[in-house]
Amino acid sequence: MKLYVKRVNAKGGVFTITVDSKDTVASLKGRIGGVLDLFPDAIRLLYQGHPLTNTEASLGSYGIKDSSRISVIHVPSIDTNSIVSKVLSSFLLDRCPANNLSAIAERYQIVSNLYRICCINKR
């Protein structure tokens, strides 16, 4: 079945994704995360305004059918008590609004993880 997916509060249009009604919410989050370049744990899915909270449930169990619309909300997965957040806060607080710190920290974490995977593991 074909689903129409729209990211809430973001630029860009609707895209389609083909799934089976037996696919799980977790697999849908993974596929959507791949398209939007987001970690599956950092997104929340809504169908008809209701959150798809049970990641092991099938899409069919939520009543999702062909041509359904799925809304995606990006929820940054940054721990505000982490060292990265504390360092960024201390350096950037004067120059950067507090509501931007989590987005900056998430990007830093992604770059840091990529560096570790690409550069350190090759040594």
Automatic annotation (TrEMBL):
Residue span, Ubiquitin-like domain: 1-73
Parts forming coiled coils: none
Pfam families: ubiquitin
Protein name: Poly ubiquitin
Organism: Loa loa
